Amino acid sequence: MERSGVAGLIGATVLWLAAVSPGLSDETLKVAVMNQQTVVEQSKAGKRAFEELKAYSMTRQKIINADDQELKELQLAIQDGKLSDSAKQEKQSQFQAKLDSYQRRITDFNREIQQKQREMVAEYSKKVQAAAQAVGERNGFTAVIDKGSEAALKIVIYHQPALDLTDQVVKEFDRQNK
């Protein structure tokens, strides 16, 4: 979806909230913003999750590096002029089998890491939502909108700095997720 489409959707949602929420008037509609990515990155639990994901990735990378080294050694052995034709052919067969296994392993590891990232995003989105809801309700806001970021999709074009609840949501997130 394009940025203008997302902004229009958010604007329509806020207007809809104002129209259908019984008892709300223009004076009581309070909207705040926060940066969900910042909440996860700055919270203690979020930092721990990123470190766990990084450690998981690094263990997989060590296995890939070991396989890579084996392939290099086999390749050097194949290039050694002292091998007989049958020994060279045997090494080439070993190399091809190892290369196939190496490529499958990389694909599998990438899939596993992406799955872990998706699971983390889903889990932490729910947790950030709960923290944002608590802060929003405590401060009397009707809605708290993720303002996005330059790296992803910037949703909120302008807001008064006082409406940014990110720091409060980080504190609430840490309180809820010790």
Overall number of domains? 1
What is the CATH T-level topology?
Protein Binding, DinI Protein, Chain A
- Which series of helices and strands comes N to C? HEHHHEH
**CATH class bucket:** Alpha Beta
Molecular structure report:
By secondary structure, this protein is mainly alpha-helical. It has one domain: Skp domain (Protein Binding, DinI Protein, Chain A, 2-Layer Sandwich). Helices cover 71% and strands 4% of the residues. It contains 5 helices and 2 strands; from the N terminus they run αβαααβα. The chain has helices at 3-20, 36-42, 44-79, 85-138, 166-176, and strands at residues 31-34, 143-146. Strands 1-2 form a two-stranded parallel ribbon. α4 packs across α5.
Produce a short descriptive summary.
It contains 5 helices and 2 strands. The radius of gyration is 26 Å and the shape is rod-shaped. The mean pLDDT is 85.
Write the layout of secondary structure elements.
Blueprint: H1 3-20, E1 31-34, H2 36-42, H3 44-79, H4 85-138, E2 143-146, H5 166-176
Parallel strand pairs: 1-2
Features:
single chain, 178 residues, mainly alpha, Protein Binding, DinI Protein, Chain A, 5 helices, 71% helix, 4% strand, rod-shaped
